[in-house]
Design goal:
Layout lengths: L2 H19 L9 H11 L7 H21 L6 E2 L9 H17 L15 H11 L4 E2 L4 E2 L1 E9 L5 E11 L2 E14 L4 E4 L2 H4 L4 E5 L2 E5 L5 H18 L5 E7 L2 H8 L1 E4 L8 E7 L2 E7 L10 H9 L10 H12 L6 H11 L8 H6 L3 E4 L2 E4 H17 L1 H8 L9 H11 L6 H14 L2
Parallel strand pairs: 1-4, 9-10, 10-13
Antiparallel strand pairs: 2-3, 4-5, 5-6, 6-7, 6-11, 8-9, 12-13, 14-15
Helix pairs in contact: 1-3, 3-4, 7-9, 9-10, 10-13, 13-14, 13-16
């Protein structure tokens, strides 16, 4: 056996003895201190910096391997996989992948294995990995398999992992993910390949918006978009929020760029939009047959700008939707066109009770898509509140919290702003509908 190989194994044996024979600190044992004490006890001069780094690196490997073995659904490694030739680096890489995938099943902000410089880009990939190992009410388990490790620039690796289960002798693939492993002093951190995949794309900036397109970009539409976004930001008091838009052709293109080689959940889908946010930044990947940004949806733009001012988990969704319909229409249709369809399909029934519709949703169609009738009622209420109280009043209604059965908080705030209570809600909504109908 080569001396270097023997030395590695000796270090690991020492570390194992130290880990299980003495009390470790809450986080990591100080390998540097241990090495110094060991040398002093034996009357040896203090070790070199390179020896200490090897010890620290080996200890980190042991610690991460220990964590990986404790996981309920550890990474499976097929024998034919071409791992790094250096055994310590190979074990460190697989242990780090294990920890990253395990942390991916928790909230993004808690994941300590993300490459710091590409956090927001990686969040959008983590949203796709989260919950991927289980499916259905019975929590059918899909196991992660390491399927490829490819060395790339800067001593990093491109990693492929597939989630698979075997049923009746047949392998069923739930998803295959690609991500980049960035080598650090002690282990590896991970990122989405989005920046690497799009590094040669064209970039167009407009205000606080940055557009990434593989080919040309419609600069006229970019200016229109920026002007409308600025008007929404003024209402919402959003300042200095940077948004990156990646313009793709379809959902397959989106997934490929962010690192999803395959995901069964998207079978048959052609379009979609994915997004993530972090601090003052937002990232949106558009996959709606719009790779050159020839069009955009003002309705969705309001949602995007609102998410920079308040978390989606805190906003009242029907009020949010009401604002988006009023300010941006939907599916290429104006607010007037949307209201006309609502009037002809839902409000045509004079026996409709709008308080009941709020509790048990009713829908109408435009261009084949369902629209909630309660969202349109909220648009009418938003219009009234903004006229009488300004957008500050609308903001107060947006912040009553998520939808809840009975909507007590909603009615309480609405009553304070407009005098419309739960008791007179139905009559007052009919008044608003009739007033809107009378408009030319």
């Amino acid at each position: 056996m080569k001396k270097s190989k023997l030395r590695e194994e000796q270090i690991l044996r020492i570390l194992k003895a130290q880990m299980y024979g003495t009390k470790a600190s809450d986080n990591f044992f100080d390998a540097n201190l241990f090495f110094t004490i060991t040398d002093c006890r034996k009357g040896r001069p203090r070790s070199s910096a390179s020896q200490k780094m090897k010890l620290i690196y080996a200890f980190t490997l042991l610690f991460t391997t220990f964590l990986a073995n404790a996981q309920l659904n550890p990474l499976r490694i097929r024998p034919h996989i071409a791992l790094p030739k250096d055994s310590i680096e190979s074990k460190s890489l697989t242990a780090s992948i294990n920890n990253f995938l395990d942390a991916a099943q928790k909230p993004n902000e808690e994941n300590k294995f993300i490459f710091e410089n590409e956090k927001i880009e990686t969040f959008i990939l983590l949203d796709e990995i989260n919950g991927i190992d289980k499916i259905g009410k019975n929590d059918i388990l899909f196991n992660p398999y390491l399927t490829n490790v490819v060395p790339i620039e800067d001593n990093n690796y491109l990693i492929q992992v597939s989630y698979i289960r075997v049923s009746d002798g047949a392998a069923i693939i739930r998803a295959t993910f690609e991500f980049i492993a960035h080598k650090t002093t002690r282990s590896f951190l991970f990122s989405s390949p989005l920046l690497r995949n799009t590094k040669n794309w064209k970039v167009e900036k407009a205000g606080n918006h940055i557009f990434h397109c593989q080919y040309s970009i419609n600069q006229k539409k970019v200016k229109e978009f920026n002007a409308l976004a600025a008007s929404f930001d003024l209402k919402l008091k959003v300042k200095n929020k940077i948004t990156d838009y990646y313009c793709c052709d379809n959902i397959i293109d989106i997934l490929k760029q962010i690192g999803v080689a395959y995901k069964a959940d998207y079978n048959g889908r052609t379009e979609g939009v994915l997004n993530s946010s972090l601090g003052d930044r937002q990232l949106i990947v558009l996959g709606n047959r719009n790779p050159t940004f020839n069009e955009f949806d003002p309705h969705d733009l309001f949602h995007d700008r609102l998410s920079l001012a308040i978390s989606r988990s805190k906003v009242n969704k029907p009020v949010d939707e009401g604002c988006a319909y009023l300010y941006g229409g939907s599916w290429g249709m104006s607010w007037k066109e949307i209201f006309r369809n609502f009037k002809e399909q839902i409000a045509i029934d004079k026996n409709t009770n709008w308080a009941e519709v709020k509790e048990t949703p009713a829908y109408f169609k435009t261009k084949g898509f369902n629209n909630s009738a309660d969202d349109i009622v909220n648009a009418l209420l938003v219009q009234k509140i903004e006229k009488e109280k300004g957008f500050a009043g609308v903001w107060e209604l947006l912040n009553v919290g998520p939808f809840e059965k009975g909507n007590e908080k909603y009615y309480q705030t609405l009553g304070k702003l407009t005098g419309i209570t739960k008791a007179n809600y139905n009559d007052k909504v009919w008044e608003l509908i009739n007033n809107e109908t009378m408009k030319k």
